[in-house]
Amino acid sequence: MNDQSAMSEFHEQLRQLARETCQHPPGSLERNKGLTRLIREIQRSGKLWRENTPYYEDVLQETFIYFIENICEGTTGKPYDPDQASPITFINFFLKKRLLDRYRDFTKKKNKEVDPYSPPDSETGEETDLFENLPAPPDPPQGGEQAKKLEKIKHWVKTDPDGNLRRTCIQGYLGITCQVLIWRRMSLETRWKDLAEEFDVPLSTLSCFYQRKCIPCLRIEELSLPLPITQAERRVAQQFSQQQSTPQKAEQVQLNTLAVCVVHSYLQMMGIASDRTASDSWNPVMHLCTDVADLEVSDVGRLECRPIKQGESTCYIPPEVWEERMGYVVVEIEESQREGKILGFTPTVAVEALPIAQLQPPEDVLDLLMEPANVSDTTVNLRQWFHDVFEAGWQTVESLLAPEQLTPAFRFRTPEQTSESEPEQSEAGVRRGKLIDLGMQLSGRPVALIVEITPAANQKTNVLLQLHPTGSQTYLPPNLKLVVLDESG
Protein backbone atom coordinates (compact mmCIF):
# COMPACT_ATOMS: atom_id res chain seq x y z
CA MET A 1 0.00 0.00 0.00
CA ASN A 2 1.54 3.33 -1.09
CA ASP A 3 1.48 6.52 1.00
CA GLN A 4 -1.29 8.13 -1.04
CA SER A 5 -3.72 5.23 -0.77
CA ALA A 6 -2.89 4.80 2.93
CA MET A 7 -3.69 8.47 3.57
CA SER A 8 -6.95 8.21 1.59
CA GLU A 9 -7.95 5.25 3.73
CA PHE A 10 -7.04 7.17 6.89
CA HIS A 11 -9.23 10.12 5.85
CA GLU A 12 -12.12 7.70 5.22
CA GLN A 13 -11.62 6.19 8.68
CA LEU A 14 -11.86 9.68 10.18
CA ARG A 15 -15.05 10.36 8.24
CA GLN A 16 -16.57 7.16 9.56
CA LEU A 17 -15.51 7.97 13.10
CA ALA A 18 -17.18 11.39 12.74
CA ARG A 19 -20.39 9.78 11.49
CA GLU A 20 -20.47 7.30 14.38
CA THR A 21 -19.71 10.04 16.92
CA CYS A 22 -22.53 12.26 15.68
CA GLN A 23 -25.07 9.47 16.04
CA HIS A 24 -24.94 9.94 19.81
CA PRO A 25 -26.80 12.79 21.57
CA PRO A 26 -24.89 16.04 22.28
CA GLY A 27 -23.22 16.01 25.69
CA SER A 28 -23.53 12.23 26.06
CA LEU A 29 -20.67 10.06 27.27
CA GLU A 30 -20.48 8.27 23.92
CA ARG A 31 -20.38 11.57 21.97
CA ASN A 32 -17.56 12.94 24.13
CA LYS A 33 -15.50 9.75 23.85
CA GLY A 34 -15.87 9.87 20.08
CA LEU A 35 -14.79 13.53 20.00
CA THR A 36 -11.75 12.65 22.11
CA ARG A 37 -10.73 9.93 19.66
CA LEU A 38 -11.20 12.32 16.71
CA ILE A 39 -8.94 14.95 18.26
CA ARG A 40 -6.34 12.32 19.14
CA GLU A 41 -6.27 10.89 15.60
CA ILE A 42 -6.07 14.35 14.03
CA GLN A 43 -3.14 15.27 16.27
CA ARG A 44 -1.35 11.99 15.57
CA SER A 45 -1.85 12.19 11.80
CA GLY A 46 0.83 14.84 11.31
CA LYS A 47 -1.55 16.62 8.90
CA LEU A 48 -2.77 19.29 11.32
CA TRP A 49 -1.53 22.71 10.18
CA ARG A 50 1.46 23.86 12.24
CA GLU A 51 3.38 27.10 12.43
CA ASN A 52 5.81 28.61 14.90
CA THR A 53 3.99 31.76 15.97
CA PRO A 54 3.53 32.95 19.56
CA TYR A 55 -0.26 32.79 19.28
CA TYR A 56 -0.53 29.38 17.55
CA GLU A 57 -1.55 27.45 20.69
CA ASP A 58 -4.23 30.04 21.52
CA VAL A 59 -5.77 29.70 18.06
CA LEU A 60 -5.47 25.91 18.11
CA GLN A 61 -7.42 25.72 21.38
CA GLU A 62 -10.13 27.97 19.89
CA THR A 63 -10.15 25.73 16.79
CA PHE A 64 -10.68 22.56 18.80
CA ILE A 65 -13.65 24.14 20.55
CA TYR A 66 -15.07 25.28 17.18
CA PHE A 67 -14.51 21.77 15.80
CA ILE A 68 -16.40 20.14 18.69
CA GLU A 69 -19.28 22.64 18.42
CA ASN A 70 -19.72 22.18 14.66
CA ILE A 71 -18.59 18.68 13.75
CA CYS A 72 -22.17 17.43 14.19
CA GLU A 73 -24.90 20.07 14.64
CA GLY A 74 -23.23 23.29 13.53
CA THR A 75 -23.78 25.16 16.80
CA THR A 76 -21.61 28.21 16.03
CA GLY A 77 -20.90 27.78 12.32
CA LYS A 78 -21.61 25.71 9.25
CA PRO A 79 -21.80 22.03 10.21
CA TYR A 80 -19.26 19.55 8.94
CA ASP A 81 -20.32 17.38 5.98
CA PRO A 82 -18.38 14.08 5.83
CA ASP A 83 -19.36 13.64 2.18
CA GLN A 84 -17.58 16.87 1.24
CA ALA A 85 -14.28 16.73 3.14
CA SER A 86 -12.19 14.93 5.75
CA PRO A 87 -12.34 16.16 9.37
CA ILE A 88 -8.69 17.23 8.96
CA THR A 89 -9.60 19.43 5.98
CA PHE A 90 -12.51 20.88 7.97
CA ILE A 91 -10.39 21.73 11.02
CA ASN A 92 -7.43 23.03 8.98
CA PHE A 93 -9.65 25.41 7.01
CA PHE A 94 -10.86 27.11 10.19
CA LEU A 95 -7.41 26.96 11.83
CA LYS A 96 -5.68 28.70 8.90
CA LYS A 97 -8.42 31.33 8.71
CA ARG A 98 -8.17 32.15 12.42
CA LEU A 99 -4.35 32.22 12.25
CA LEU A 100 -4.55 34.68 9.37
CA ASP A 101 -6.92 36.89 11.38
CA ARG A 102 -4.59 36.75 14.38
CA TYR A 103 -1.59 37.54 12.17
CA ARG A 104 -3.29 40.67 10.86
CA ASP A 105 -4.06 41.78 14.42
CA PHE A 106 -0.53 40.93 15.50
CA THR A 107 1.17 42.95 12.75
CA LYS A 108 -0.89 46.02 13.58
CA LYS A 109 0.93 46.33 16.88
CA LYS A 110 4.03 48.45 16.76
CA ASN A 111 5.78 46.80 19.66
CA LYS A 112 7.11 43.42 18.58
CA GLU A 113 7.51 41.03 21.49
CA VAL A 114 9.77 37.99 21.52
CA ASP A 115 8.04 34.83 22.71
CA PRO A 116 10.23 33.41 25.50
CA TYR A 117 8.66 30.01 24.99
CA SER A 118 9.65 29.55 21.32
CA PRO A 119 11.87 26.47 20.95
CA PRO A 120 15.21 26.77 19.13
CA ASP A 121 15.09 26.44 15.34
CA SER A 122 17.55 23.55 15.28
CA GLU A 123 19.41 21.14 17.51
CA THR A 124 23.18 21.05 17.76
CA GLY A 125 25.44 18.09 18.33
CA GLU A 126 27.93 15.91 16.49
CA GLU A 127 26.61 12.47 17.55
CA THR A 128 26.00 9.96 14.77
CA ASP A 129 22.30 9.25 14.17
CA LEU A 130 22.14 5.47 14.04
CA PHE A 131 18.55 5.60 12.84
CA GLU A 132 19.54 7.24 9.55
CA ASN A 133 21.77 4.26 8.73
CA LEU A 134 19.17 1.54 9.37
CA PRO A 135 17.98 -0.52 6.38
CA ALA A 136 14.39 -0.31 5.21
CA PRO A 137 12.02 -2.81 6.86
CA PRO A 138 10.46 -5.66 4.89
CA ASP A 139 7.07 -5.02 3.30
CA PRO A 140 4.26 -5.59 5.83
CA PRO A 141 1.38 -7.99 5.15
CA GLN A 142 -1.47 -6.27 3.34
CA GLY A 143 -4.92 -5.67 4.83
CA GLY A 144 -6.31 -6.19 8.30
CA GLU A 145 -6.71 -3.82 11.24
CA GLN A 146 -3.49 -5.01 12.89
CA ALA A 147 -1.46 -4.32 9.75
CA LYS A 148 -2.92 -0.81 9.48
CA LYS A 149 -2.18 -0.16 13.13
CA LEU A 150 1.37 -1.43 12.71
CA GLU A 151 1.94 0.88 9.75
CA LYS A 152 0.75 3.88 11.80
CA ILE A 153 3.15 3.04 14.62
CA LYS A 154 6.05 2.51 12.20
CA HIS A 155 5.38 5.87 10.61
CA TRP A 156 5.35 7.48 14.05
CA VAL A 157 8.64 5.81 15.04
CA LYS A 158 10.31 6.83 11.79
CA THR A 159 9.19 10.47 11.83
CA ASP A 160 9.29 10.95 15.64
CA PRO A 161 7.34 14.23 15.35
CA ASP A 162 8.05 15.50 18.86
CA GLY A 163 11.64 14.18 19.01
CA ASN A 164 10.95 12.25 22.21
CA LEU A 165 12.18 8.90 20.87
CA ARG A 166 15.47 10.42 19.69
CA ARG A 167 16.05 12.15 23.02
CA THR A 168 15.39 9.06 25.15
CA CYS A 169 18.65 7.11 25.26
CA ILE A 170 20.67 4.84 27.53
CA GLN A 171 22.86 6.87 29.85
CA GLY A 172 26.34 7.02 28.38
CA TYR A 173 25.18 5.69 24.98
CA LEU A 174 23.72 8.63 23.05
CA GLY A 175 23.25 6.56 19.91
CA ILE A 176 21.13 3.84 21.52
CA THR A 177 17.76 5.56 21.57
CA CYS A 178 14.18 4.36 21.86
CA GLN A 179 13.75 5.22 18.19
CA VAL A 180 16.56 2.85 17.18
CA LEU A 181 15.48 -0.01 19.47
CA ILE A 182 11.76 0.14 18.66
CA TRP A 183 12.51 0.24 14.94
CA ARG A 184 14.94 -2.67 15.15
CA ARG A 185 12.57 -4.77 17.25
CA MET A 186 9.34 -3.90 15.43
CA SER A 187 10.40 -3.55 11.80
CA LEU A 188 13.56 -5.64 11.47
CA GLU A 189 12.77 -8.13 14.27
CA THR A 190 16.38 -8.07 15.44
CA ARG A 191 17.05 -10.40 18.36
CA TRP A 192 18.08 -8.94 21.73
CA LYS A 193 21.24 -11.02 21.72
CA ASP A 194 22.29 -9.58 18.36
CA LEU A 195 21.53 -6.03 19.50
CA ALA A 196 23.59 -6.46 22.66
CA GLU A 197 26.58 -7.74 20.64
CA GLU A 198 26.23 -5.01 18.02
CA PHE A 199 26.11 -2.14 20.52
CA ASP A 200 28.49 -3.82 22.99
CA VAL A 201 25.99 -3.34 25.82
CA PRO A 202 24.87 -5.97 28.36
CA LEU A 203 21.65 -7.68 27.33
CA SER A 204 20.07 -6.90 30.70
CA THR A 205 20.81 -3.18 30.21
CA LEU A 206 19.11 -3.12 26.82
CA SER A 207 16.08 -5.09 27.98
CA CYS A 208 15.60 -3.01 31.15
CA PHE A 209 15.88 0.27 29.22
CA TYR A 210 13.39 -0.95 26.62
CA GLN A 211 10.84 -2.01 29.25
CA ARG A 212 11.19 1.08 31.45
CA LYS A 213 11.59 3.81 28.82
CA CYS A 214 10.55 2.64 25.35
CA ILE A 215 7.40 0.61 26.08
CA PRO A 216 5.81 3.60 27.92
CA CYS A 217 6.62 5.73 24.85
CA LEU A 218 4.68 3.30 22.66
CA ARG A 219 1.74 3.33 25.02
CA ILE A 220 1.80 7.12 25.26
CA GLU A 221 1.67 7.44 21.49
CA GLU A 222 -1.23 5.01 21.23
CA LEU A 223 -3.47 6.57 23.89
CA SER A 224 -2.26 10.08 24.73
CA LEU A 225 -4.22 13.22 23.92
CA PRO A 226 -2.04 16.22 22.94
CA LEU A 227 -3.58 19.64 23.69
CA PRO A 228 -2.19 23.17 23.30
CA ILE A 229 -1.13 25.39 26.21
CA THR A 230 -2.05 29.02 25.56
CA GLN A 231 0.06 32.11 26.22
CA ALA A 232 -2.28 33.18 29.03
CA GLU A 233 -1.91 29.79 30.74
CA ARG A 234 1.87 29.95 30.46
CA ARG A 235 1.86 33.46 31.95
CA VAL A 236 -0.21 32.35 34.94
CA ALA A 237 2.10 29.40 35.54
CA GLN A 238 5.13 31.68 35.35
CA GLN A 239 3.58 34.19 37.75
CA PHE A 240 2.88 31.46 40.29
CA SER A 241 6.41 30.09 39.93
CA GLN A 242 8.01 33.52 40.47
CA GLN A 243 6.40 33.69 43.92
CA GLN A 244 8.34 30.65 45.16
CA SER A 245 11.50 30.74 47.28
CA THR A 246 13.58 28.06 45.52
CA PRO A 247 14.12 27.04 41.88
CA GLN A 248 12.90 23.52 42.66
CA LYS A 249 9.63 24.77 44.15
CA ALA A 250 9.20 27.23 41.31
CA GLU A 251 9.45 24.45 38.70
CA GLN A 252 7.07 22.25 40.68
CA VAL A 253 4.40 24.95 40.89
CA GLN A 254 4.84 25.90 37.23
CA LEU A 255 4.41 22.33 35.98
CA ASN A 256 1.49 21.69 38.34
CA THR A 257 -0.29 24.79 37.06
CA LEU A 258 0.22 23.83 33.42
CA ALA A 259 -1.11 20.30 34.07
CA VAL A 260 -4.24 21.74 35.68
CA CYS A 261 -4.71 24.07 32.69
CA VAL A 262 -4.49 21.20 30.19
CA VAL A 263 -7.10 19.10 32.01
CA HIS A 264 -9.31 22.16 32.48
CA SER A 265 -9.16 22.81 28.72
CA TYR A 266 -10.08 19.21 27.93
CA LEU A 267 -13.09 19.29 30.26
CA GLN A 268 -14.17 22.59 28.71
CA MET A 269 -14.12 20.98 25.27
CA MET A 270 -16.24 18.12 26.59
CA GLY A 271 -18.78 20.53 28.11
CA ILE A 272 -17.86 19.63 31.72
CA ALA A 273 -17.67 22.61 34.06
CA SER A 274 -14.57 22.99 36.23
CA ASP A 275 -13.29 25.87 38.34
CA ARG A 276 -9.55 26.45 38.68
CA THR A 277 -9.98 29.38 41.06
CA ALA A 278 -11.83 27.18 43.57
CA SER A 279 -8.94 24.69 43.60
CA ASP A 280 -6.01 24.61 46.03
CA SER A 281 -3.67 24.63 43.00
CA TRP A 282 -4.77 28.21 42.31
CA ASN A 283 -4.20 29.35 45.91
CA PRO A 284 -0.76 31.00 46.40
CA VAL A 285 -0.83 30.18 50.12
CA MET A 286 -1.29 26.45 49.40
CA HIS A 287 1.70 26.58 47.03
CA LEU A 288 3.94 27.38 49.98
CA CYS A 289 3.15 24.27 52.02
CA THR A 290 1.84 21.59 49.63
CA ASP A 291 2.59 19.93 46.31
CA VAL A 292 -0.93 20.13 44.92
CA ALA A 293 -2.35 20.13 41.37
CA ASP A 294 -6.08 19.71 41.95
CA LEU A 295 -8.95 20.85 39.74
CA GLU A 296 -12.44 21.41 41.15
CA VAL A 297 -15.03 19.78 38.86
CA SER A 298 -18.36 21.48 39.48
CA ASP A 299 -20.86 19.41 41.50
CA VAL A 300 -18.63 16.33 41.26
CA GLY A 301 -15.39 16.67 43.22
CA ARG A 302 -11.65 17.17 42.70
CA LEU A 303 -9.31 15.69 40.12
CA GLU A 304 -5.57 15.67 40.75
CA CYS A 305 -3.66 16.69 37.60
CA ARG A 306 -0.10 15.46 37.96
CA PRO A 307 2.63 16.62 35.55
CA ILE A 308 5.63 14.71 34.23
CA LYS A 309 8.44 15.74 31.89
CA GLN A 310 9.07 14.18 28.49
CA GLY A 311 10.72 10.78 28.68
CA GLU A 312 9.71 10.01 32.29
CA SER A 313 8.16 6.57 32.85
CA THR A 314 6.70 7.19 36.31
CA CYS A 315 4.67 10.03 37.79
CA TYR A 316 5.24 11.30 41.33
CA ILE A 317 2.04 11.38 43.42
CA PRO A 318 2.74 13.06 46.80
CA PRO A 319 1.07 11.37 49.79
CA GLU A 320 -0.82 14.56 50.71
CA VAL A 321 -3.07 14.10 47.66
CA TRP A 322 -3.85 10.39 48.14
CA GLU A 323 -7.16 11.27 49.80
CA GLU A 324 -10.12 13.48 48.86
CA ARG A 325 -9.60 13.00 45.13
CA MET A 326 -11.99 11.48 42.59
CA GLY A 327 -9.09 10.39 40.45
CA TYR A 328 -5.70 11.27 39.00
CA VAL A 329 -4.89 12.51 35.48
CA VAL A 330 -1.26 12.44 34.32
CA VAL A 331 -0.11 15.15 31.89
CA GLU A 332 3.23 15.19 30.06
CA ILE A 333 4.43 18.79 29.65
CA GLU A 334 6.41 19.43 26.47
CA GLU A 335 9.86 20.96 26.96
CA SER A 336 8.80 24.24 25.31
CA GLN A 337 5.66 24.24 27.53
CA ARG A 338 3.48 24.93 24.50
CA GLU A 339 1.77 21.54 24.55
CA GLY A 340 0.60 19.06 27.16
CA LYS A 341 -0.25 15.41 26.55
CA ILE A 342 -2.91 13.81 28.70
CA LEU A 343 -1.35 10.38 29.12
CA GLY A 344 -4.07 8.67 31.10
CA PHE A 345 -6.14 8.36 34.21
CA THR A 346 -6.37 6.25 37.37
CA PRO A 347 -9.15 6.39 40.00
CA THR A 348 -6.90 5.66 42.99
CA VAL A 349 -3.23 5.61 43.97
CA ALA A 350 -1.32 3.92 46.77
CA VAL A 351 2.30 4.59 45.75
CA GLU A 352 4.34 7.73 45.19
CA ALA A 353 5.86 6.51 41.89
CA LEU A 354 2.93 5.69 39.60
CA PRO A 355 4.03 3.76 36.45
CA ILE A 356 2.72 5.37 33.27
CA ALA A 357 2.09 1.92 31.80
CA GLN A 358 -0.63 1.31 34.44
CA LEU A 359 -2.79 4.26 33.39
CA GLN A 360 -6.20 3.89 31.81
CA PRO A 361 -6.92 5.82 28.55
CA PRO A 362 -7.52 9.57 29.02
CA GLU A 363 -11.19 9.37 28.01
CA ASP A 364 -11.88 6.93 30.88
CA VAL A 365 -12.04 9.96 33.15
CA LEU A 366 -15.32 10.77 31.36
CA ASP A 367 -16.82 7.59 32.85
CA LEU A 368 -16.12 9.04 36.26
CA LEU A 369 -17.55 12.48 35.49
CA MET A 370 -20.50 11.63 33.25
CA GLU A 371 -21.66 8.01 33.61
CA PRO A 372 -24.80 7.80 35.78
CA ALA A 373 -24.61 5.40 38.66
CA ASN A 374 -26.17 1.99 38.11
CA VAL A 375 -28.33 1.91 41.20
CA SER A 376 -30.73 -0.92 41.85
CA ASP A 377 -34.40 0.05 42.00
CA THR A 378 -35.38 -3.00 44.09
CA THR A 379 -38.05 -2.15 46.66
CA VAL A 380 -37.30 -3.13 50.26
CA ASN A 381 -40.21 -3.96 52.58
CA LEU A 382 -38.95 -2.53 55.85
CA ARG A 383 -41.96 -3.72 57.91
CA GLN A 384 -40.92 -7.32 57.30
CA TRP A 385 -37.76 -6.61 59.25
CA PHE A 386 -39.81 -6.70 62.47
CA HIS A 387 -40.45 -10.38 61.62
CA ASP A 388 -36.77 -11.12 60.87
CA VAL A 389 -37.35 -11.23 57.11
CA PHE A 390 -34.53 -9.43 55.24
CA GLU A 391 -33.82 -9.00 51.53
CA ALA A 392 -30.52 -10.24 50.10
CA GLY A 393 -27.54 -7.99 50.83
CA TRP A 394 -28.76 -6.58 54.14
CA GLN A 395 -26.35 -7.58 56.91
CA THR A 396 -25.83 -6.93 60.59
CA VAL A 397 -24.00 -3.71 61.34
CA GLU A 398 -21.29 -5.64 63.18
CA SER A 399 -20.47 -7.67 60.03
CA LEU A 400 -20.08 -4.53 57.91
CA LEU A 401 -18.10 -2.24 60.18
CA ALA A 402 -14.80 -2.80 61.94
CA PRO A 403 -14.89 -2.98 65.77
CA GLU A 404 -13.13 0.38 66.12
CA GLN A 405 -15.85 1.95 63.93
CA LEU A 406 -18.48 0.80 66.43
CA THR A 407 -16.77 2.58 69.33
CA PRO A 408 -18.12 4.77 70.87
CA ALA A 409 -21.56 3.12 70.81
CA PHE A 410 -23.18 3.32 67.39
CA ARG A 411 -26.25 5.55 67.76
CA PHE A 412 -28.77 7.36 65.66
CA ARG A 413 -30.40 10.62 66.68
CA THR A 414 -33.54 12.42 65.69
CA PRO A 415 -34.72 15.80 66.97
CA GLU A 416 -37.46 14.10 69.02
CA GLN A 417 -35.08 11.69 70.77
CA THR A 418 -33.45 12.36 74.10
CA SER A 419 -30.49 10.63 75.64
CA GLU A 420 -32.88 8.84 78.07
CA SER A 421 -35.17 7.50 75.34
CA GLU A 422 -32.47 6.15 73.02
CA PRO A 423 -31.81 2.81 74.80
CA GLU A 424 -35.51 1.83 74.83
CA GLN A 425 -35.96 2.69 71.17
CA SER A 426 -32.76 0.89 70.24
CA GLU A 427 -33.99 -2.27 71.98
CA ALA A 428 -37.32 -2.21 70.12
CA GLY A 429 -35.84 -1.34 66.74
CA VAL A 430 -34.19 -3.35 64.01
CA ARG A 431 -30.96 -2.30 62.38
CA ARG A 432 -29.33 -3.59 59.20
CA GLY A 433 -26.65 -2.39 56.80
CA LYS A 434 -25.84 -2.78 53.11
CA LEU A 435 -22.62 -2.20 51.19
CA ILE A 436 -23.01 0.49 48.51
CA ASP A 437 -20.32 0.33 45.80
CA LEU A 438 -20.63 2.83 42.94
CA GLY A 439 -17.10 2.20 41.72
CA MET A 440 -15.22 5.29 40.51
CA GLN A 441 -18.17 7.53 41.39
CA LEU A 442 -17.13 7.08 45.02
CA SER A 443 -13.39 7.12 44.23
CA GLY A 444 -13.41 3.33 44.36
CA ARG A 445 -14.38 3.40 48.06
CA PRO A 446 -17.60 1.54 48.99
CA VAL A 447 -19.68 2.87 51.88
CA ALA A 448 -22.14 1.25 54.26
CA LEU A 449 -25.77 2.38 54.29
CA ILE A 450 -27.16 1.71 57.76
CA VAL A 451 -30.96 1.68 58.27
CA GLU A 452 -32.71 1.43 61.63
CA ILE A 453 -36.47 1.13 62.00
CA THR A 454 -38.39 1.56 65.25
CA PRO A 455 -42.16 1.30 65.88
CA ALA A 456 -43.97 4.54 66.61
CA ALA A 457 -47.49 5.55 67.65
CA ASN A 458 -50.51 5.18 65.34
CA GLN A 459 -48.95 2.21 63.50
CA LYS A 460 -46.21 4.40 62.10
CA THR A 461 -42.53 3.56 61.82
CA ASN A 462 -39.51 5.73 62.39
CA VAL A 463 -36.79 5.21 59.74
CA LEU A 464 -33.27 6.42 60.54
CA LEU A 465 -30.46 6.45 57.96
CA GLN A 466 -26.70 6.82 58.15
CA LEU A 467 -23.74 6.43 55.80
CA HIS A 468 -20.47 5.11 57.16
CA PRO A 469 -16.97 4.52 55.70
CA THR A 470 -15.83 0.91 55.43
CA GLY A 471 -12.60 -1.02 55.73
CA SER A 472 -9.60 1.08 56.75
CA GLN A 473 -11.22 4.35 55.67
CA THR A 474 -11.78 6.94 58.39
CA TYR A 475 -13.85 9.44 56.42
CA LEU A 476 -16.56 9.30 53.80
CA PRO A 477 -15.63 10.23 50.21
CA PRO A 478 -15.71 14.01 49.61
CA ASN A 479 -18.87 15.68 48.28
CA LEU A 480 -20.98 12.61 49.05
CA LYS A 481 -24.64 13.41 49.73
CA LEU A 482 -27.46 11.25 51.08
CA VAL A 483 -30.80 12.37 49.69
CA VAL A 484 -34.19 10.89 50.68
CA LEU A 485 -36.96 11.25 48.08
CA ASP A 486 -40.65 11.00 48.93
CA GLU A 487 -43.42 9.86 46.57
CA SER A 488 -43.42 13.21 44.79
CA GLY A 489 -39.66 12.99 44.17
Q: Mind explaining what this structure looks like?
A:
This protein has 489 residues and is α+β, with helices and mostly antiparallel strands. Helices cover 39% and strands 15% of the residues. The protein contains 15 helices and 13 strands. The strands form four sheets. A six-stranded mixed sheet has the order 3-9-8-6-5-4. A three-stranded antiparallel sheet has the order 11-12-13, covered by helices on one side. Strand 12 and strand 13 form a beta hairpin. Helix 7 packs across helix 9 and helix 10 runs antiparallel to helix 11. It is globular, with a radius of gyration of 28 Å. The termini are far apart. About 9% of the residues have low confidence.
Q: Any chance you could write out the topology, listing elements then pairs?
A:
Layout lengths: L2 H20 L6 H17 L10 H15 L16 H22 L36 H15 L4 H4 L1 E2 L2 E5 H9 L5 H8 L3 H21 L1 E4 L2 H12 L4 H23 L4 E2 L8 H6 L4 E4 L3 E9 L4 E3 L10 E7 L5 E8 L6 E3 L8 H7 L26 H4 L21 H7 L1 E7 L10 E9 L5 E9 L20
Parallel strand pairs: 6-8
Antiparallel strand pairs: 1-2, 3-9, 4-5, 5-6, 7-10, 8-9, 11-12, 12-13
Helix pairs in contact: 1-2, 3-4, 7-9, 10-11
